[in-house]
Amino acid sequence: MTLHIDARRRAMLAEMGVRVWLPMPKEAEPAALAVPAARERAGHDAALQPTQPTQPTQPTQPTQPTQPTQPTQPTQPMQPMQPMQPMQPMQPMQPMQPDHAVAAPAREAASKAPVDSAPVRQITRPEPSITPPPASLRVQADPPTSLPSAASQPAADTSNVPVLAGLPWPALQQAASSCTACALHSGRQHSVWDASAANEPDGLPRWLFVLDPPGQAENTSGQPLQGDAGRLLANMAAAVRLQPAQILRSHATRCAPAGRAATLPEVAQCAAFLRHEIALLRPQVIVALGRNAAWSLLQRTEPLGQLRGQLHRIAVPAGDAALQPVLADIPVIVSYPLDYLLRNAPAKARAWEDLCLAALHAASAPTIRA
User: Fold this and answer.
1) Using CA atoms, how far apart are residues 335 and 352, in angstroms rounded to an integer?
2) In sequence order, which residues have a C-beta less than 8 Å from that of residue 207 and are 6 or more positions away?
3) I need a labelling partner for 67 at 20 to 30 A (CA). Which of 59, 314, 335, 356 fits?
4) Rg over CA atoms, the chain
5) What is the full DSSP assignment across 95-113?
6) How far apart, in whole angstroms, are the C-alpha atoms of residue 346 and residue 210?
7) How deeply is 110 buried, as exposed, middle or buried, from its count of CB atoms within 10 A (0-12, 13-18, 19+)?
8) Which has the closest alpha carbon to 194: 225, 217, 220, 171?
9) What digits encode the pLDDT tens for the residues 251-290?
10) Are 332 and 286 in contact (CB under 8 A)?
11) How many CB atoms lie under 10 A from the CB of residue 124?
C-alpha cells in the first residue's frame, strides 16, 4: 500500500513527531553507484583527449661575481674636553622703591610736559523725554520710605491748635477730642490714646512705640494698635524681654484718616500732642515705626533706610521750647511700620536689629524723672 503525502501533511506529521519514509524512485540511481560511474566516465573522456607537448626548460642564468668589500675607515681620535668656565658672581638686587618714590618722578615729568591750551569741546547730549505712565499703572513703592518735602505741602494752620502747655493727662486727652485744627476731625469717633499710659510707672523703664496714623479699628475703639499689628508688636517687645507694663503706644495723629493717608500738615498739627504726651510719659527710649511717626518726632523727610541704624533726638520747635530739657535726652530709633512687616517677613530681621539698637541705648540712657 502506498501513501501519497503532500508537503503540508508532511510538515504537520513532523510537528507531531511522526517520521515518514518515502520509497526511492526507480529512475534515481543510488548515490553510492552514481559517484564511481561519474569517475569512470571522466577518466575515459580524459584518455580520448590528445596530450599537449611540454615546453622546453629555460637555461639558468650565470650568477654575478660578488663585489669586494671596501676597507673600513680608521676612527678619528676623540677631542679633549674643554675646561668649564667659572660662574660669574650674582649682582646684588637693587632695593625696591616705595610707590610714592616711583610716582613722584612721573608726576614731576607730567607737570613739565607742555599742556595744550586749546579749549575742550563740550558735547551736549539732548535729555531723553520720558513719558510718565498713566495713573492706573503707577505703583507706590513698598515700603513707603520718605515723606514729601514740606515745600510741596500747604502750610499748616496753627490758629486752631489748642494751648497744651502745662496740661495734665486727662486735660490733654480732652483737648485732642475737641480739636478741629485739621480735616481729620470730620471722621473722628474717638481720639486714640493708650489707656495704660495713664498708669503710674512701677519703677521699670518704659518704651514708647510711636506708630503711623491710626486706622478704622482704632477709630472705633479709641485704643492704639488693634488686630494683627498689635499682636506683632507684643511679640517684638517680648523678644527683647519687655513686660506688658513697660510698653507704651501712641500714633502720629490722634484721629484716623477716612480711607486715605494723612497729609504732612495733618501730621504736623498732631505733633504738638505727641510732644506733650512724651513729656508726661518720660519713656526711656522711643521707637518710631513708620515714616509719619519718624517725621512727627524728627521733622526729617529722608527715606527710612537712611534713618535706620542710628541714634536720633526729638526735634523741638520754638513754640515748645519749654519741653526741651525733658525731651532732649530721650533716644529715638527709627524702624519699619508694622503693616509692612506683616506683609514682608524678611524685613523682620532688620526690625530686630533696630530693637537691639534701641535696647542698647535704653540701657545707657539716663533715667528721666518727673
Assistant:
1) 9
2) 237, 242, 246, 247, 248, 283, 284, 285, 286, 287, 358, 362
3) 59
4) 56
5) PPPPHHHHHHHHHHHHHHS
6) 22
7) exposed
8) 225
9) 999 999 988 889 999 999 999 999 999 999 999 999 999 9
10) yes
11) 5
Whole-number Cα distances in Å, 189 to 192, 233, 364: 9, 24, 40
CB-based contacts of 345, cutoff 8 Å, min separation 6: none
- Locate all alpha helices (DSSP H) within the chain, ordered by sequence: 7-15, 31-48, 99-112, 169-177, 216-221, 228-239, 264-281, 291-298, 304-307, 324-327, 338-343, 348-364
pTM: 0.58
Closest by CA position to 294, among listed 276, 279, 309, 282: 309
**Contact of 249 with 290, CB cutoff 8 Å:** no
CB 252 within 8 A of CB 270: yes
What is the pLDDT of the chain when averaged over all its residues? 74
pLDDT score, position 2:
54
249, 207, 199, 256: which is closest to 229 by C-alpha? Answer: 249
Q: What are phi and psi of 187, to 5 degrees?
A: -105, 15
Q: Which three cell numbers stand for residue 357?
A: 539698637
For residue 265, which amino acid is it? P
| Helices H / strands E in the chain, number of each | 12, 4
**Residues 233 and 225 sit within 8 Å (Cβ to Cβ):** yes
| Conformation bin of residue 232: beta by default, left when phi > 0, alpha when psi is -120 to 50 | alpha
pLDDT at 142 over 50: no
Distance CA 261, CA 147 (A): 11
Q: Which amino acid is at 339?
A: D
Convert the pLDDT of each residue in 96-133 to its tens digit. 555 444 444 545 554 454 444 444 454 444 443 434 43
**Cell numbers representing residue 118 in the block:** 586749546
The answer to whether the CB of 154 falls within 8 A of the CB of 182 is: no
One-letter amino acid of 38: A
Pairing of strands 285-289, 207-211: parallel
CA separation for the pair 303, 294 (Å, rounded): 10
- Residue with the three cell numbers 513707603: 144
Q: Which residues pair with 208 in a beta bridge?
A: 248, 286
pLDDT tens digits, residue range 324-338?
999 999 999 999 999
